[in-house]
TrEMBL record:
Protein name from the UniProt record: Potassium channel subfamily K member 13
Domain Potassium channel: 39-111, 163-217
Taxonomic lineage of the native organism: Eukaryota, Metazoa, Ecdysozoa, Nematoda, Chromadorea
Stated family: Belongs to the two pore domain potassium channel (TC 1.A.1.8) family.
Keyword Membrane belongs to the record: yes
Organism: Bursaphelenchus xylophilus
Membrane topology, as annotated: Multi-pass membrane protein
Cellular component annotations (GO), alphabetically ordered: plasma membrane
C-alpha cells in the first residue's frame, strides 16, 4: 500500500510538471495568435468601411486579403482602390508583417519545444527545462508539410487524389510567392476562417521544412570544410562504440536534449581553455 502511494505520488508529480511545462510553452503561443486573429479581423472591417471597391468582396474575402497581405503572399485579386485605403494598407503592413513573422517563428519554436518535451518525457529524461536552440526533426517537419498538402485536397476539393495544380498552389502559397493565377476565396465567414487556418498552417510547415533543410546544408558544407566525419566509431576501453549511439547514451544519462548536450560540451571547452590559461600563468 505504501509503495502504491509513493508510486502514485511520483507519477502525479511528473504529470503535474509536464503540464506546467506544456502551459509555459503554449500560453505565449496562444496569446500571439489571438493578437494576430484580432489584427486580421480589425483590418477586414477597416478596409470594408473605407474602400467601396474592396467592400464588394465582403468581410470573409477581406479577412483572407488581410492575412495574405501581412504574410507577404499577396495574390493580387483584391487590392486598395483609393489613395486613402492605400495609405492605410501601407500602415497596416508596417505593423502587421512583423506580427505575422513573430507568429510564424514562435510557432516553429513552440512545435519543436513540444516535441522535445514529449520526447524527453517518454524517454524519462526529466530535465527541468529545455534551453538553447531547439530543432524540429526532419521527419516530423516532412510529415507536417505532407499533412498541409493533404488538407488542400480533403478540405477544399473534398476529393482523395492530389494533382499537379494542388501541388503548385500549395508551394506558391506556402512559400509566400503568391503569383495570383490561383488564389483563395470564400463565401462565408466560417469558410474564410478555416482557409486562413489552412494558409497559416501551410506557411508554418514549409517554413520549418526550409529552415531544417538550410541547417542541413550548413552542417554538411561546414563538415566538408573542416573535413570532420558526420558519424564514426570511438574506442571506449576495449569496446568500439558508434558516435551517434554514444551521444544518445550521454543524453539519456545526463537527462538532456541533444541541443543541451552541445551547449554543455561548449561550456566544458571554455572551462578547459580558462584552466589551461591559468596553469600557464
Amino acid at each position: 500500500m505504501l509503495f502504491f502511494q509513493l508510486d502514485f505520488s511520483h507519477n502525479f508529480s511528473r504529470e503535474n510538471s509536464l503540464l506546467k511545462r506544456l502551459l509555459r510553452v503554449t500560453l505565449p503561443f496562444i496569446f500571439v495568435y489571438g493578437l494576430l486573429g484580432a489584427y486580421i479581423t480589425f483590418g477586414a472591417h477597416l478596409f470594408y468601411q473605407i474602400d467601396d471597391g474592396m467592400s464588394k468582396h465582403g468581410i470573409a474575402n477581406l479577412s483572407i486579403f488581410c492575412l495574405t497581405t501581412i504574410a507577404t503572399i499577396g495574390y493580387g485579386n483584391i487590392y486598395p482602390t483609393t489613395d486613402y485605403s492605400r495609405i492605410v494598407c501601407i500602415i497596416y503592413c508596417i505593423f502587421g508583417i512583423p506580427l505575422c513573422l513573430v507568429c510564424l517563428d514562435s510557432t516553429v519554436k513552440t512545435v519543436a519545444r513540444l516535441y522535445w518535451i514529449v520526447s524527453s518525457t517518454v524517454r524519462r529524461m526529466r530535465s527541468p527545462w529545455i534551453r538553447g536552440e531547439i530543432r524540429l526533426p526532419f521527419c516530423i517537419a516532412g510529415c507536417l508539410l505532407l499533412s498541409a498538402f493533404l488538407l488542400k485536397t480533403l478540405c477544399f476539393e473534398k476529393r482523395f487524389h492530389f494533382t499537379l495544380e494542388d501541388l503548385y498552389f500549395c508551394v506558391v502559397s506556402f512559400s509566400t510567392v503568391g503569383l495570383g493565377d490561383i488564389y483563395v476565396t470564400s463565401k462565408t465567414n466560417t469558410e474564410a476562417f478555416y482557409k486562413i487556418i489552412f494558409l497559416i498552417y501551410g506557411v508554418i510547415c514549409l517554413s520549418a521544412f526550409f529552415t531544417i533543410m538550410g541547417q542541413w546544408y550548413l552542417h554538411f558544407f561546414r563538415r566538408r570544410e573542416e573535413k570532420i566525419p558526420i558519424d564514426g566509431y570511438l574506442m571506449v576501453g576495449e569496446e568500439q562504440i558508434r558516435l551517434k549511439k554514444l551521444i544518445l547514451q550521454l543524453c539519456l544519462k545526463l537527462n538532456v536534449s541533444p541541443s543541451e548536450l552541445k551547449s554543455l560540451i561548449k561550456q566544458m571547452k571554455d572551462l578547459i581553455k580558462i584552466s589551461e590559461n591559468n596553469n600557464m600563468q
